[in-house]
Amino acid sequence: MSEVTRNGGRRAARKRADVLVAACAVVAERGADATRFTDVTAATGVGVSTLQYYFGSREDMLIAVFRFAAQSDFDAVTPRLAGIGDAWERLLVIASHLTGAVGSDTGWRLWVESWRWALRDPELRAEVLGDYRRWHEMLASIIAAGVADRRFGTDAAPMDVARQALALIDGLALPVALGDPQVTGAAAGDLLADALGRLVLLRSPAL
């Protein structure tokens, strides 16, 4: 492959990624059902024919948005965990990210939209369940490490605790995404920290 071909491919990939970032914002604002190619064109300046070239149909574009948003969420939290050794602090990083206690709630709005579409689309449903498995596995590994370090006192299976933890996160993130004035991102973070501490039977760090 020539250098020109490689560079052209990289530019095209970056352009498609830029379009997906903008499309994520459009879908988060308008909802998947109301998003058309023309809405993304208005936000990006990229023509409808180019969007069709990138994605195919409107439905394919929306599924690409859901995939991109899910991967972006995972990619965003991973570097935040780097250098943090304490299992409790790692758990709080994930919790604050997923509840929107930090940053934008765009990702969570897209997550809700992906749930709706997954109910009707078996392929997307499998991907959404796969995303859940990734989060469950990440949480379970942190919980297992916390138990091994005697930071957590729970004797339940780490995967069971991980499923309960993510259920708590989902339950508190929804009112944040809906704009409930009584459950802001910060309030959700505080409530979640308290609930997670009880769930894992948090212990004081060893001196």
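the 2nd protein, sequnce then structure:
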Amino acid sequence: MFQIGDNIVYPMHGAGIIKAIEEKEISGEKQQYYVIKMLTSNMQVMIPSCKILSSNIRPVTDIIALKNIIHIFQHGESDRILPWKQRYKVNMDKIKTGKILEGAEVVRDLMRIKREKALNSSEKKMLDNAHENLISELGLIKGITENQIKSFF
């Protein structure tokens, strides 16, 4: 499915690069593993190839899809009437999907709330993580410049 050198996004962890596909024996069972170097945390993750689909790992978004995401980010509506606990759960579910649009919506909505009032510590941490993951993916999209990334926010 993925090849060595592919840029990917791993939900909850951000963007990474597939560094190797290795065969390992664990508990007497041989399996192939994708070795992924995560960009934001500087850690290495190994995922069995049989679990790659269920992990929601996906290729990095392309520049064409990004234009639609930027439009939604800048012009989309936020649901501001939810209590923070419900909003936190909704946002966490969005982040877990690993979809760039869902992550961008979380960043957009929390940034809008932050402009009006202080976020609680849980939402502040969520915003920081979602923002970092979004930036890590944007940095890997072919054809995007650093100035375009900065103008996104």
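Residues 67 and 73 are 10 Å apart (CA to CA). The mean pLDDT is 88.
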